[in-house]
Amino acid sequence: MILSVNAYVSHFYFIKIINLHNFYFALRGSFAHNIKKEYGVFEMRGNPEVVDYLNMLIGGELAARDQYLIHSRMYEDWGLTKIFERIDHEMQEEAAHADSIIRRVLFLEGTPNMNRDDIETGEDVVSCLKADLKLEYHVRDKLAQGVKLCEEKGDYITRDMLRQQMSDTEEDHTYWLEKQIRLIELIGLQNYIQSQM
């Protein structure tokens, strides 16, 4: 029994020594990491050009989120329940896009730039739809350029993320907005508004 207890105690101290050893190396690594960063010799994990471009994209996604937010609330105030629900959904998707890019910048050891691009607030249903479509065209073009840059720099994870966002923009947001504008031209504004109540 004494031998068993001694073996247990020895095992305990052995584990303790290993843990302290790992803690020492983790602490030393963290210290070296912080020293490098403090003295300007810290190398980020991601390509600086990609990180800068992602920061630019954040501004566009935040602008899209806020523009959809104000327009969705305007539709709700006008009693247009169906289009409110759709645009509110788009607002949430734009927020998710911004969140994904922010997380990617952090992973690449950059600092997210939270400065939002300017937004264009419509005054009626048609101007709101056209302003949103204009913004989506802008975002789509910027995403396409981002995909190309990531391809050139060999950052295929970021490239695939931007490709997915570009697909959402083209096949969902942009396509739906184009359909609404065509529908208004086809059936008239008053009929369209009645269909959205």
List the helices and strands and how they pair.
Layout: H1 2-38, H2 48-77, H3 81-107, H4 125-153, H5 156-187, H6 189-195
CATH topology of the largest domain: Ferritin
What is the terminal separation in angstroms? 81 Å
Strand content: under 5%
Mean pLDDT: 85
Let me know the number of strands.
Answer: 0
Q: Cα-atom Rg, whole angstroms?
A: 26 Å
Taken together, the total number of domains comes to 2
Helix content: over 70%
CATH level 1 name of the largest domain: Mainly Alpha
Distinct helical segment count:
6
Largest sheet: none
Q: Spans with pLDDT under 50 lasting ≥5 residues?
A: 1-37
Shape: elongated
Q: What series of H and E elements makes up the topology?
A: HHHHHH
CATH-defined superfamily of the largest domain: Ferritin, core subunit, four-helix bundle
The assigned structural class equals mainly alpha
CATH architecture of the largest domain: Up-down Bundle
3D structure, described in words:
The chain is mostly helical and about 200 residues long. It has two domains: about 1-45; about 50-195, Ferritin (Up-down Bundle), CATH 1.20.1260.10. The protein contains six helices and no strands. Helix 2 runs antiparallel to helix 3, helix 3 packs antiparallel against helix 5 and helix 5 packs across helix 6. The longest helix is centred in the N-terminal third of the chain and has 37 residues, at about 1-40. The model is unreliable at about 1-35 (pLDDT under 50).
Keywords:
single chain; mainly alpha; Ferritin; 82% helix
